[in-house]
Amino acid sequence: MPEPEIAEDVSFRDLDRAARERLRGLSKENAERVGLHLVMAGRLIDVDPELAYEHAQAAVRRGGRVDIVREAAGIAAYRTERYAEALRELRTVRRLNGSSEHLPIMADAERGLGRPERAIALATSPEADTLTGVGRVELALVLSGARADLGELDAALAVLDKIPAQQGDLGLRVLAARAAVLEAAGRTAEAAELLADVDPEALERAAGNVLPEEDVVVYDTFDEEEGVEDEDAADDGTVVEDAVASEGPADDSADDATDVPADETAAEETAAEETAAEETAAEETAAEETAAEETAAEETAAEETEERE
Predict the structure, then answer these.
(1) How high is the pLDDT of residue 200?
(2) For the chain, how many structural domains are there in total?
(3) What's the confidence (pLDDT) of residue 261?
């Protein structure tokens, strides 16, 4: 399958340094190619999610055993509404690195699949207690939405009531969520009053309906410190939408992917050849078994014919 094109101005150093470190298990050439696809995925996730998904898939084909690669694939799948795939990828990430940071996205993906009960189960699981800051608020937003999906509007409002005051876009999203629940409950006047003094453009931006002014060039997880006044004040769990950070290019002094001995590259090629050989052998065996079954069937038919005669 042909890989999507890499923009000429994209560099491996655009990738967050910590992310580059995670690619050290790959050969240098392959790590750089995977890194370029991750940068492209991060750059395109808000402006062209489908193309971002293609870049993430190209990275998976080259380095599918690296957690940040599967993370990129999961987030891109989520943003393109491939919710079942997003769940599979992010579960894989959790197995690879033990982190539950993407629990909000996983819970929201369950909502996307029409399974609010599972979203609630994730949002109230022991793993939810490990989230802090933005992750905890995001998970609360998903939990509230899942309650609303089930028609439990009072419970949805109760979840939002437990979120401490937020600033910036996150605060606007909490406000919009409350207004949506009030609207669903038929309390339209309260919903309108809640948003009366809010700039509509700011609300659209907070909801992610306005394209960013600048390209995002770094693919990494969100900064959990942003937009949270008190990390320890939120005691109830909730959901998250983006895991693409815009930290900017890493320092030029950062190391590139580690040089890997030629024998590692040869080992990778050998493994690929062995896999191909195994697949070919399996196909040949299946063909032989099919031919044997057909021959046996023909002999049985001939014997039956002779008996009738």
Answers:
(1) 87
(2) 3
(3) 40
How would residue 103 be classed by pLDDT, with cut points 50, 70 and 90?
very high
Domain boundary among 47, 71, 98: 98
Please check whether residues 135 and 189 belong to one and the same domain.
yes
pLDDT digits (tens, 9 = 90+) for 123-136: 999 999 999 999 99
CA distances from 89 to 92, 94, 139, 283 (A): 5, 9, 19, 29
Residue 259, in any domain of the structure: no
CB 142 within 8 A of CB 177: no
Give the CA dihedral 184, 144, 245, 127, nearest 10 degrees.
-160
79 and 108 both lie in a single domain:
no
For residues 227 and 127, membership in a common domain is answered with: yes
The confidence score (pLDDT) of residue 280 equals 46
Amino acid type, 3: E
What is the pLDDT, as a whole number, of residue 205? 85
pLDDT tens for each residue of 282-292: 444 444 444 54
Q: What are phi and psi of 228, to 5 degrees?
A: -120, 125
- Both structure tokens of 200: 């509509």
Q: H-helix or E-strand containing 200?
A: helix 200-206
Q: Is residue 122 in some structural domain?
A: yes
- pLDDT at residue 187 in the model: 96
Q: Which residues pair with 228 in a beta bridge?
A: 166
Q: At 211, is the pLDDT very low, low, confident or very high (cuts 50, 70, 90)? A: low
Residues 6+ apart with CB under 8 A from 262: none
Nearest to 269 by CA among 32, 70, 58, 30: 30
Residue 16 buriedness (CB in 10 A; 0-12 / 13-18 / 19+): buried
The CATH number of residue 30's host domain is 1.25.40
